[in-house]
Amino acid sequence: MSVRWVAKISLAIGCGLVGMGWTGAASAQSEAKQIPPQAGGKGNMPWMNTALDADTRADMMIRQMTLDEKIQLVHGIGWGPLRPGAYVPPGDNGGAGFVAGIPRLGLPNLNLADSAVGVRMAALDSRYATLLPSVLGMASSWNPKLAFLYGSVIGRELRAQGFNMSIGGGVDLIREPRNGRNFEYASEDPVLAGTMVGKLAMGVQSNHVMGDIKHYVLNDQETGRNTYNAVLNRRAMQETDLLAFQIAIRMAQPAGVMCSYNRVNGDFACENQYTLNDVLKKQWGFKGFVLSDWEATHSTVKAALAGLDMEQPGDQYFGAPLKQAVQDGQVPLARLDDMVHRIVRSMIADGVVDDPPVRSVVNPFQGRNDAQKIEESSMVLLKNQDGILPLRAGDRKIAVIGGKADFGVISGGGSGQVDAPGGRPGGSQWGDPVYFPSSPLRYITQQAERQANCGVDAVAGGGVHAVKISFDPGTNLAQAAQAAAQANVAVVFVTQWMSEGMDRPSLSLPDNQDALVEAVAKANPNTVVVLETGGPVTMPWRDQVKGIVEAWFPGIGGGQAIAAALYGRVNAWGKLPVTFPAGEAQLPHPQVTGLTSKTGNNGMNGGAHHAKEARNFTVDYNVEGMEVGYKWFQVKQETPLYPFGYGLSYTRFGYSALDVAPDAQSVSFEVTNTGARGGDEIAEVYATLPASSGEPFRRLVGFARVSLKAGASQRVTVPIRPLYLKIFSTKKNDWERLPGEYILEVGGSSADLPLRTKVQLAAQ
Ligand code: BGC
After folding, report:
1. Which pLDDT band holds residue 133 (cuts at 50, 70, 90)?
2. Which band of pLDDT confidence, cut at 50, 70 and 90, is reported for residue 3?
3. Which atom of ligand 1 is least distant from the CA of 114?
4. Nearest residue by C-alpha to atom 8 in ligand 1
């Protein structure tokens, strides 16, 4: 059978310089929206006076509310547009949640929209929403400015669609690399995850849309998520999963924190005195409100007294039963007032009362450009043997294989799904993988065209060359191998669909794709693999291919970004925010806890999670405790497939001249681009605490992303927050710095840290 060539190119079109990537935030988005001052409040509504602070204004308004009005604010109205046939009240904007406002007091409705990687459910009202790269992808950029841009795209489009609250902001740690929701989360490391998701939420809120951080807490796998009991000692919890939330919440001061479905050390997360009242509200001083995940409320009095402020999506516990409990004195009126205060003050503080959303047309072009920019800095170059990448003008015959690359790029499922342009009427179907029309094949063809005509790479004389690009779907191994054999270079796309409501039983690529890569690599030694995965996967073919690119779930600019990176139009690679294990046996939990044929899908809403077999199993996170991700690998002396913080570039970087500021408040060092191209480097700073801490592993304490021209050097200073050098003392119920010797290390990967020094620090 002969190969079908989809493009033959010999035309001259525009040539350009190889870019260095993009590291700045969009200027139009970088400043928070200003609320115009309003004199004195409107008529008989003195709380509308913007000169007063949000807490004062909220209290003034609450004094006017009846008991029924207060109750109305602390629950949703049911499943609404999420469930066919459910009641949809007037004013409901078609999102996952709705809380009726109080027009007589000038308090608007709350319209909440899922928006993990872009606004969900847009198709219901024939709206458009930008699909961003996965959060995990964005976090691979290690660039807080891009995280802010990411959130600002979401905020901008929520606002344009008439929503005033985001319920995205997932920051659960990646303890379980097979977790179906890892694409909505940021990292296995609390400092990286907290920083990136905090910035994301700031970006959302900069549009006067209320932000959210979720799922609080230890919702680190989907299997049995509605019922399982996550067990973890307090110190480890504080230094891992809670720390990620603490960092993000401190940074963004989001309106909402969504408590999760699971139990934490016995109590459900939405009625957990320790995590809600003691930690979130008292220890961290969180001023916003706690809303339950959808049907994660399990009681009235217990939940109200433990710190839950809003039930979603309905009123089973916080409707009539809460009113009764207040009237009976089981829940003090002051506690109800506190719930209402938290909600109203957040609405005022975030600007949704004074500057409500104005509907407009979402700008799909701006969204796509932003998505592409983020993806270009988020892909990770894992292998580049013999400099197979970037592709050159001499690579004239290219076989593109698999992954529906002729059509587009894959996206994640569940409530983090965005509806694709041209997608199914009514929106995406839960459980079906959705591809977005950003075809890598199309843009590889464009880049090849450009390269052929510009002779950017060393083809003697440059000039015009004929390029042939073929496409094979990869469904028939023999045909795929044949296509590969006829090309100079084979680029194989492989995908791993992930979704809320399920975990992967293994780290292997699904659908026989490992065999596909092996067949292609056998037929052509110049094989490059592009991964579009929700998280880490194993690569039994790693030694047989020359190039490996992790593109995550790439978003609507994915095709363009992947092609630009493959051709070296950008050199802005990211680094892994999560360890890629060599196999399941290396993990603290070689199998996903509780994952059987019966429980596999029980994380989904609906009947399945009520099944008996789903109940009451324990996920024992004390197995790894504080040693999440790379810390576990270091302590167990296991070599992963690719370590945390790892990633290559089209150039190389050297590190020198480490200097530590007094009291380790910062470190500074020199980074030099020692290669022949401009590019971005992500410098990572790790600390190992004194032996008395009992933590024999390095932890990330800071990072910086720098752009350097070929040959250029820059002195980089990375501040270290004092908190990041502390341990959590359960005795003091507080963080403390232990006296002793601290090791500080700097470099480009957790497993390659050329700079190292020791400092003595006093107790703090
Ligand atoms: C998810 C949440 C989501 C909610 C509303 C739940 O199933 O866990 O992340 O915000 O549904 O759609």
Report:
1. very high
2. low
3. 10
4. 293
Dist. CA 294 → ligand 1 center (Å): 6
Q: How confident is the model at residue 604 (pLDDT cuts 50, 70, 90)?
A: very low
The band of 378, judged by pLDDT with boundaries at 50, 70 and 90, is: very high
Distance from C-alpha of 579 to C-alpha of 582, rounded to nearest angstrom: 9
For residue 167, give the ligand 1 atom closest to its CA: 10
Which residue among 99, 185, 500, 604 has the greatest number of ligand 1 atoms within 8 angstroms of its CB, and so is best to mutate?
500
Q: Which atom of ligand 1 sits closest to the CA of residue 170?
A: 9
Cα of 313 to ligand 1 centre, how many Å? Answer: 10
Domains in the chain, ordered, with CATH?
Answer: 4-23+367-418+434-566 (3.40.50.1700), 50-349 (3.20.20.300), 653-761 (2.60.40.10)
Q: Is there an atom of ligand 1 within 6 Å of 495 CB?
A: no
Both ends of the chain: CA-CA distance in Å?
Answer: 72
Q: Is 605 in the pocket of ligand 1 (CB under 6 A)?
A: yes
How far is residue 44 from each of residues 47, 61, 102, 616, measured CA to CA in Å? 9, 11, 15, 53
Distance (Å, whole) CA 549 – CA 528 = 8
From the alpha carbon of 604, which atom of ligand 1 is closest? Answer: 7
User: For a substitution probing ligand 1, which of 99, 165, 167 has the most ligand atoms within 8 Å of its CB?
Assistant: 167
Give the per-residue pLDDT at 38: 53
- Chain segment 263-313, per-residue pLDDT in tens: 999 999 999 999 999 999 999 999 999 999 999 999 999 999 999 999 999
pLDDT of res. 2: 52
pLDDT for 449 equals 87
Which is it for the CA torsion 519, 524, 527, 532, positive or negative?
Answer: negative
pLDDT reading at 609 higher than 50: no
Ligand 1: residue whose CA is nearest its atom 6? 294
CA distance 20 to 568: 9
Q: pLDDT value at position 5?
A: 67
C-beta 96 within 6 A of ligand 1: yes
Which tokens go with 685? 């700073």
* Mean of pLDDT values over 126-142: 97
Residue nearest to atom 2 of ligand 1 (CA): 293
From CA 466, how far away is CA 459, in angstroms rounded?
13
- Give the 3-state secondary structure of residue 212: strand
378 lines ligand 1 (CB under 6 A): no
CB 522 within 8 A of CB 481: yes
CB of 293 within 6 A of ligand 1: the answer is: yes
Please report which confidence band the pLDDT of residue 757 belongs to, taking 50, 70 and 90 as the band edges: very high
User: How much distance in Å is there from the Cα of 415 to the middle of ligand 1?
Assistant: 6
- Look over the chain and give the mean of its residue pLDDT values, rounded to a whole number: 92
- Amino acid identity of residue 739, one-letter, is P
Q: Quick: pLDDT tens for 660-686.
A: 999 999 999 999 999 999 999 999 999
What residues contact residue 280 under an 8 Å CB cut-off, 6+ apart? 216, 245, 249, 257, 286, 290, 307
Q: How far apart are CA 34 and CA 519, in angstroms?
A: 58
